[in-house]
Protein backbone atom coordinates (compact mmCIF):
# COMPACT_ATOMS: atom_id res chain seq x y z
CA UNK A 1 0.00 0.00 0.00
CA UNK A 2 1.20 3.48 -0.80
CA UNK A 3 1.89 5.73 2.18
CA UNK A 4 0.22 9.14 2.21
CA UNK A 5 2.70 11.98 2.21
CA UNK A 6 1.87 15.11 4.14
CA UNK A 7 2.48 18.25 2.13
CA UNK A 8 3.73 21.18 4.16
CA UNK A 9 2.49 24.60 3.10
CA UNK A 10 5.56 26.84 2.87
CA UNK A 11 3.57 29.85 1.65
CA UNK A 12 2.12 30.43 5.16
CA UNK A 13 -1.34 30.93 3.64
CA UNK A 14 -2.93 29.28 6.68
CA UNK A 15 -1.25 31.82 8.97
CA UNK A 16 -2.41 34.72 6.80
CA UNK A 17 -5.94 33.30 6.84
CA UNK A 18 -5.92 32.96 10.64
CA UNK A 19 -4.66 36.52 11.08
CA UNK A 20 -7.36 37.82 8.76
CA UNK A 21 -10.05 35.93 10.69
CA UNK A 22 -8.73 37.21 14.02
CA UNK A 23 -8.60 40.79 12.75
CA UNK A 24 -12.16 40.70 11.38
CA UNK A 25 -13.42 39.08 14.59
CA UNK A 26 -11.88 41.80 16.76
CA UNK A 27 -13.07 44.66 14.54
CA UNK A 28 -16.64 43.32 14.32
CA UNK A 29 -17.13 42.72 18.06
CA UNK A 30 -19.10 45.17 20.16
CA UNK A 31 -17.68 44.34 23.58
CA UNK A 32 -15.06 42.29 25.42
CA UNK A 33 -17.33 39.36 26.22
CA UNK A 34 -18.46 38.93 22.62
CA UNK A 35 -14.96 39.31 21.21
CA UNK A 36 -13.36 36.81 23.61
CA UNK A 37 -16.14 34.30 22.94
CA UNK A 38 -15.70 34.59 19.16
CA UNK A 39 -11.91 34.39 19.35
CA UNK A 40 -12.04 31.18 21.38
CA UNK A 41 -14.27 29.62 18.73
CA UNK A 42 -11.70 30.18 15.96
CA UNK A 43 -10.01 26.91 15.02
CA UNK A 44 -6.35 27.53 15.82
CA UNK A 45 -3.83 24.71 15.47
CA UNK A 46 -1.57 23.96 18.45
CA UNK A 47 1.45 26.27 18.29
CA UNK A 48 -0.42 29.01 16.43
CA UNK A 49 -1.88 30.62 19.57
CA UNK A 50 0.86 33.24 19.35
CA UNK A 51 -0.82 34.59 16.19
CA UNK A 52 -3.83 35.60 18.25
CA UNK A 53 -1.60 37.41 20.76
CA UNK A 54 0.36 39.13 18.01
CA UNK A 55 -2.76 40.30 16.18
CA UNK A 56 -4.34 41.62 19.37
CA UNK A 57 -1.23 43.71 20.09
CA UNK A 58 -1.11 44.86 16.47
CA UNK A 59 -4.77 45.94 16.47
CA UNK A 60 -4.25 47.75 19.77
CA UNK A 61 -1.22 49.65 18.46
CA UNK A 62 -3.16 50.81 15.37
CA UNK A 63 -5.76 52.68 17.44
CA UNK A 64 -5.53 56.46 17.66
CA UNK A 65 -5.59 56.23 21.47
CA UNK A 66 -5.32 53.24 23.79
CA UNK A 67 -8.53 51.31 24.37
CA UNK A 68 -9.02 49.13 27.47
CA UNK A 69 -11.02 46.87 25.18
CA UNK A 70 -7.77 45.20 24.09
CA UNK A 71 -6.31 44.98 27.58
CA UNK A 72 -9.45 43.28 28.89
CA UNK A 73 -9.42 40.76 26.04
CA UNK A 74 -5.75 39.98 26.65
CA UNK A 75 -6.44 39.46 30.35
CA UNK A 76 -9.39 37.16 29.62
CA UNK A 77 -7.33 35.04 27.23
CA UNK A 78 -4.55 34.63 29.84
CA UNK A 79 -7.08 33.52 32.44
CA UNK A 80 -8.73 31.05 30.05
CA UNK A 81 -5.55 29.36 28.87
CA UNK A 82 -2.03 29.52 30.33
CA UNK A 83 -0.61 29.12 26.82
CA UNK A 84 -1.75 32.67 26.00
CA UNK A 85 -0.03 33.95 29.14
CA UNK A 86 3.27 32.44 28.03
CA UNK A 87 2.91 33.85 24.51
CA UNK A 88 2.08 37.35 25.78
CA UNK A 89 5.20 37.21 27.96
CA UNK A 90 7.25 36.25 24.89
CA UNK A 91 5.61 39.10 22.98
CA UNK A 92 6.63 41.54 25.73
CA UNK A 93 10.29 40.56 25.32
CA UNK A 94 10.13 40.78 21.51
CA UNK A 95 8.26 44.09 21.51
CA UNK A 96 10.74 45.66 23.95
CA UNK A 97 13.71 44.44 21.89
CA UNK A 98 12.23 46.00 18.72
CA UNK A 99 10.60 49.02 20.36
CA UNK A 100 12.82 51.45 18.42
CA UNK A 101 10.97 50.44 15.24
CA UNK A 102 7.61 51.70 16.48
CA UNK A 103 6.35 55.22 15.97
CA UNK A 104 5.35 57.16 19.08
CA UNK A 105 1.61 56.41 18.97
CA UNK A 106 2.10 52.66 18.48
CA UNK A 107 4.74 52.66 21.20
CA UNK A 108 2.38 54.37 23.66
CA UNK A 109 -0.52 51.98 22.98
CA UNK A 110 1.73 48.91 23.20
CA UNK A 111 3.19 50.05 26.51
CA UNK A 112 -0.27 50.71 27.98
CA UNK A 113 -1.47 47.30 26.77
CA UNK A 114 1.31 45.47 28.63
CA UNK A 115 0.83 47.67 31.69
CA UNK A 116 -2.80 46.49 31.76
CA UNK A 117 -1.70 42.84 31.62
CA UNK A 118 0.80 43.44 34.41
CA UNK A 119 -1.41 45.28 36.91
CA UNK A 120 -4.18 42.73 36.32
CA UNK A 121 -1.63 39.92 36.93
CA UNK A 122 -2.45 38.37 33.57
CA UNK A 123 1.29 37.97 32.90
CA UNK A 124 4.18 37.50 35.31
CA UNK A 125 6.19 40.50 36.49
CA UNK A 126 9.31 38.43 35.83
CA UNK A 127 9.31 39.92 32.29
CA UNK A 128 10.84 43.03 33.90
CA UNK A 129 14.19 41.24 34.04
CA UNK A 130 14.64 41.96 30.33
CA UNK A 131 14.67 45.72 30.99
CA UNK A 132 18.15 47.07 31.80
CA UNK A 133 17.75 50.68 32.92
CA UNK A 134 21.05 52.41 32.25
CA UNK A 135 22.44 54.88 29.74
CA UNK A 136 24.10 52.32 27.46
CA UNK A 137 21.30 49.74 27.23
CA UNK A 138 18.40 52.13 26.64
CA UNK A 139 17.33 54.28 23.72
CA UNK A 140 14.91 57.21 23.58
CA UNK A 141 12.17 54.79 22.45
CA UNK A 142 12.79 52.26 25.23
CA UNK A 143 12.83 55.06 27.83
CA UNK A 144 9.45 56.28 26.59
CA UNK A 145 8.15 52.70 26.79
CA UNK A 146 9.39 52.29 30.39
CA UNK A 147 8.05 55.73 31.34
CA UNK A 148 4.52 55.04 30.07
CA UNK A 149 4.58 51.48 31.47
CA UNK A 150 5.38 52.61 35.02
CA UNK A 151 3.14 55.65 34.96
CA UNK A 152 0.24 53.38 34.01
CA UNK A 153 1.17 50.87 36.73
CA UNK A 154 1.39 53.67 39.32
CA UNK A 155 -1.99 55.05 38.24
CA UNK A 156 -3.66 51.64 38.41
CA UNK A 157 -2.05 50.30 41.60
CA UNK A 158 -1.03 53.44 43.45
CA UNK A 159 2.59 54.33 44.26
CA UNK A 160 2.58 52.54 47.62
CA UNK A 161 1.30 49.21 46.27
CA UNK A 162 3.55 49.43 43.21
CA UNK A 163 6.57 49.98 45.47
CA UNK A 164 5.57 46.95 47.56
CA UNK A 165 5.41 44.81 44.42
CA UNK A 166 8.83 45.97 43.31
CA UNK A 167 10.32 45.33 46.77
CA UNK A 168 8.98 41.77 46.91
CA UNK A 169 11.90 39.59 48.05
CA UNK A 170 10.79 36.65 45.89
CA UNK A 171 10.94 38.83 42.76
CA UNK A 172 14.08 40.76 43.68
CA UNK A 173 16.30 39.08 41.08
CA UNK A 174 13.88 39.98 38.28
CA UNK A 175 14.11 43.71 39.10
CA UNK A 176 17.88 44.01 39.61
CA UNK A 177 18.46 45.33 36.06
CA UNK A 178 15.60 47.79 36.43
CA UNK A 179 17.02 49.14 39.70
CA UNK A 180 20.78 48.60 39.19
CA UNK A 181 23.22 48.54 42.09
CA UNK A 182 26.25 47.22 40.21
CA UNK A 183 27.66 50.66 39.36
CA UNK A 184 27.02 54.05 41.05
CA UNK A 185 26.69 55.62 37.58
CA UNK A 186 23.84 53.23 36.64
CA UNK A 187 22.23 53.71 40.06
CA UNK A 188 22.20 57.50 39.63
CA UNK A 189 20.78 57.13 36.12
CA UNK A 190 17.86 55.00 37.39
CA UNK A 191 17.20 57.44 40.26
CA UNK A 192 17.19 60.43 37.91
CA UNK A 193 14.96 58.60 35.41
CA UNK A 194 12.21 57.67 37.86
CA UNK A 195 12.40 61.08 39.55
CA UNK A 196 12.01 62.85 36.19
CA UNK A 197 8.79 60.93 35.40
CA UNK A 198 7.28 61.70 38.80
CA UNK A 199 7.97 58.33 40.41
CA UNK A 200 10.89 59.23 42.67
CA UNK A 201 9.17 57.34 45.49
CA UNK A 202 10.27 54.08 43.84
CA UNK A 203 13.95 54.96 44.28
CA UNK A 204 14.25 55.08 48.10
CA UNK A 205 16.11 51.77 48.18
CA UNK A 206 18.50 52.94 45.45
CA UNK A 207 19.14 56.22 47.29
CA UNK A 208 19.99 54.34 50.49
CA UNK A 209 22.29 52.03 48.55
CA UNK A 210 24.07 54.99 46.92
CA UNK A 211 24.39 56.69 50.31
CA UNK A 212 25.91 53.61 51.94
CA UNK A 213 27.99 52.56 48.91
CA UNK A 214 31.19 54.42 50.01
CA UNK A 215 31.02 52.78 53.44
CA UNK A 216 30.53 49.35 51.88
CA UNK A 217 33.48 49.92 49.52
CA UNK A 218 35.70 51.04 52.43
CA UNK A 219 34.64 48.02 54.49
CA UNK A 220 35.36 45.71 51.55
CA UNK A 221 38.83 47.24 51.17
CA UNK A 222 39.48 46.81 54.90
CA UNK A 223 38.40 43.18 54.72
CA UNK A 224 40.69 42.57 51.72
CA UNK A 225 43.58 44.30 53.49
CA UNK A 226 42.97 42.28 56.64
CA UNK A 227 42.85 39.08 54.60
CA UNK A 228 46.15 39.96 52.89
CA UNK A 229 47.75 40.69 56.28
CA UNK A 230 46.59 37.37 57.71
CA UNK A 231 47.93 35.58 54.64
CA UNK A 232 51.26 37.39 54.99
CA UNK A 233 51.50 36.51 58.71
CA UNK A 234 50.77 32.87 57.93
CA UNK A 235 53.48 32.92 55.25
CA UNK A 236 56.05 34.46 57.62
CA UNK A 237 55.12 31.96 60.32
CA UNK A 238 55.55 29.11 57.85
CA UNK A 239 58.95 30.46 56.74
CA UNK A 240 60.01 30.77 60.40
CA UNK A 241 58.97 27.19 61.12
CA UNK A 242 60.90 25.99 58.06
CA UNK A 243 63.96 27.96 59.19
CA UNK A 244 63.78 26.51 62.73
CA UNK A 245 63.36 23.03 61.30
CA UNK A 246 66.38 23.57 59.06
CA UNK A 247 68.52 24.87 61.95
CA UNK A 248 67.50 21.91 64.09
CA UNK A 249 68.42 19.51 61.29
CA UNK A 250 71.83 21.16 60.81
CA UNK A 251 72.49 21.02 64.58
CA UNK A 252 71.60 17.32 64.64
CA UNK A 253 73.95 16.63 61.74
CA UNK A 254 76.83 18.45 63.54
CA UNK A 255 76.32 16.42 66.74
CA UNK A 256 76.38 13.19 64.74
CA UNK A 257 79.63 14.17 63.01
CA UNK A 258 81.30 15.06 66.35
CA UNK A 259 80.35 11.68 67.87
CA UNK A 260 81.73 9.90 64.86
CA UNK A 261 85.09 11.69 65.16
CA UNK A 262 85.27 10.85 68.93
CA UNK A 263 84.84 7.18 68.24
CA UNK A 264 87.52 7.30 65.56
CA UNK A 265 90.05 8.59 68.14
In short:
The chain is mainly α and 265 residues long. It contains ten helices and no strands.
What does this structure look like?
It is a single chain. With 265 residues, this protein is an all-alpha fold. 70% of the residues lie in helices and 0% in strands. The chain is built from ten helices and no strands. The protein has helices at 13-28, 32-41, 49-62, 68-80, 82-97, 104-119, 140-157, 159-166, 184-196, 204-264. Helix 3 crosses helix 5 (82-97), helix 4 (68-80) packs across helix 6 (104-119) and helix 9 (184-196) packs antiparallel against helix 10 (204-264). The longest helix has 61 residues, at 204-264. The termini are far apart.
Fill in the keyword field for this structure.
mainly alpha, 10 helices
Strand residue content: under 5%
The ordered string of helix (H) and strand (E) elements is: HHHHHHHHHH
Put simply, the count of helices is: 10
Main sheet record: none
Query: What is the CA–CA distance across the termini?
Result: 113 Å
Number of strands: 0
Q: Kindly provide the radius of gyration, computed on alpha-carbon positions and rounded to a whole number of angstroms.
A: 33 Å
What is the structural class?
A: mainly alpha
Poorly predicted runs: none
The dominant shape is: elongated
Task: Tell me the helix content.
Answer: 55-70%
Averaging pLDDT over every residue, what do you get?
85
Amino acid sequence: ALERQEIEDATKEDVVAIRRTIYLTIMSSLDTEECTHKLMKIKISPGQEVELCTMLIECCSQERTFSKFYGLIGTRLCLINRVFQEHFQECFVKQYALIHRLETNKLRNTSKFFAHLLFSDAISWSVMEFISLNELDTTSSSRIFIKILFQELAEALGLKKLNERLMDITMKDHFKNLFPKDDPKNTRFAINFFTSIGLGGLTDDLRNHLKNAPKQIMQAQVDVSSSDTDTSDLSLSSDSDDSDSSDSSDSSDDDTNKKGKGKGK
